[in-house]
Amino acid sequence: MTRTNPDSCPGVLRLHQAADGPLARIRLPGGRLEPGQLQSLAEAAVELGDGNIELTSRGNVQLRQVRDAAALSEWLAGAGLLPSDTHERVRNIVASPLSGRIGGWADVHALVPALDLGLRAAARLAELPGRVLFTLDDGRGDISGLGGDIGVHATDTDEFALVLAGRDAGIRVSTADAVPVMLAAAHAFLDLGSDQWRLHEVDDGARRVTDILGLSPGLERLEFGATHDIPIGWLDQDNGLVSLGAAVRLGSLSARIAEFIAAIERPIFITPWRSLVITDLEEWPAEQVVRVLAPMGLIFDANSPWLQVSACAGQPGCAKALTDVRADATAAVESGRVPPTNQPAADSDTNGHATESDRPTANLDSTATDPAASAPNAIAPNATALPPDAEALDFDDVAPAPNIAAPHPNIAAPAPNMASASSAVTDLGPAIELRSADDVMVAGRQHWSGCDRRCGRPRGPVTDIVATENGYRID
Fold it and tell me: Are 333 and 445 in contact (CB under 8 A)?
């Protein structure tokens, strides 16, 4: 594939003109946010945007309907979220969210500042396309499967595999050499002189980068697969403290909830699965955080159906979208047409639709969709009243949760009767049936798209629910 247009990936200084107004994307190397930075983002979302913070599949955030670009730039610079005018779009660094706290061979978060500083220190690297992705995997395999361009994958406490175009290049480097080799690979990408935005789009790109580096690959190759291991719920850290993993419905975090999270005053990590992790909590405050935030909409239940669903922007945010897919996906979850991950789907036809006899009604058990409901592994079954505002958040004002359950951090595999692209196309051919939004029922991971571009589609097995002019097509 040959690119005919320059990379137009948005940032803070170059906004994307979405259908609902200008959109700004703020890079968060390693996904890390300090509490004060999250508070600043929340204030900016209210004062200059639509009041929400969107989480992206690269652990970054976006603000929509930006009313004053210059004011936003100044605001974010003051919060330390815009440290470079020239390199702001190339600071795409994702890292294993739990690294250094739970499991893994090495703490890859310790490499993030050095990699970010190295990118910004090299004037030439500002020429990298805004799509280039740097990945840091601590060996658990959650990040290397995202298909990044340049990265490292821990194989021991002081050894990393070099990852190029999403594959093990066969080169092993020490911790001390990991960042210098990644930076050298970034320069090598530019040396290829290609107009492509991603390394895998360049003919034989990974081998050519390896040749430029002058490193000799070994015979061993690791295999990386796409995973959907969202860290959700109560997560015991190796040092005795607690992290809380929370899913965000369709990746849209309201400024009000963000202010409550900032008031906890602990480091936050935005994950590539449009969720977040609040870290370094004592047990007592962690229990109270869940009691406050679960009723507000954060999801601490690893079996919630919301973890199965993603969606593109849809209308009114995208001019190409044929419908408001986020509203339709939300209706599907709230009506019970998306089964929880620990429950099989109701009977459905070959295209993933509910049959007439099993189509959900308005009297569904609320535990299927309520993240605060008292399901066996729900983390906050009985929430108390909320504090009046984020600044007034006082853990001592909230009653304890003596029997809090700890969901497993990994979600279940898709249900066995999940519709797939191959079955839909092979079985139905060109006469594939279209369904209205309220007649779609699909089990397992699913992505709702407003058009055939399928923007934001996650990697790995997933059912596509694609809007057409006459209804939804299930692929």
Answer: no
Asked whether the beta carbons of 457 and 464 are under 8 A apart, the reply is yes
**Residues of the chain where predicted confidence (pLDDT) is lower than 70:** 1-6, 342-432
- pLDDT tens across 61-111, in order? 999 999 999 999 999 999 999 999 999 999 999 999 999 999 999 999 999
Q: What is the pLDDT of residues 81-90, one digit of tens each?
A: 999 999 999 9
Where are the extended beta strands (E) located within 321-453? 446-449
C-beta atoms surrounding 449 within 10 Å: 25
Instruction: Mark 342-370 as b/e (b = at least 16 C-beta within 10 Å).
Output: beebbebeebbbbeeeebbeeeeeebbbb
Choose among 272, 280, 267: nearest CA to 32: 267
The sheet carrying 32-33 orders its strands as: 32-33, 268-270, 275-281, 242-247, 233-236
CA angle 325, 256, 76 (to 5 degrees): 90
Nearest Cα to 405, choosing from 434, 382, 431?
382
Enumerate the β-bridge partners of residue 164.
150, 167
Q: Where are the alpha helices (DSSP H) in 232-302?
A: 255-263, 283-293
- Is 460 strand, coil or helix? coil
User: What number of other Cβ atoms are within 10 A of residue 218's Cβ?
Assistant: 12
